[in-house]
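A quick aside before the break. I want you to see a complete sequence-to-structure record at least once, exactly as it would be stored in a machine-readable document. Don't worry about memorizing anything.
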Amino acid sequence: MNIPFLGNWRKRHDGRHGAGLAAAVEADPDAVAELLAECELLRVRAGQRGLELDDTPASLTALDQLPPRWRDDPEELPWLGNDAGLYLGTVLVRNVPGAVWRIWPSGQPVVRLASGREIDVVEAGLDWAMAGSPELSQVYAESAEG
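That is the input. The structure line, written in tokens, reads:
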């Protein structure tokens, strides 16, 4: 999986590849959470439409209400979907008690809830970007319930 912001993380950590993202989460979960929260493309596109993403559940509802103009650009669509998933994960981790980032052996970032359930937020973000369903706010609500 190509995670565009990973290059930025490597630059800040002397370009080391060996430890991997999973080890980085274990070593410094706050730094990795900040990295995963960047979601630069999504934040720019939302800002262009007058929406500031403030890492709250209400911002997910606002994102769901935006006209899906990104679907007109097939090259940008997967990147925006990836960012939407990471943003969903950021909102979960910052607002749901016990929610934390985890990295699957494949390198896929997921959110583990206190119950042990894991949410593949990137897949949810891609589904949202491509089809509009499920809504990000719906995934958040279902996840926040446990």
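Two observations worth writing down. Confidence is low (pLDDT under 50) at residues 13-19. The beta strands are 100-103, 109-112, 118-119. We'll return to this after the break.
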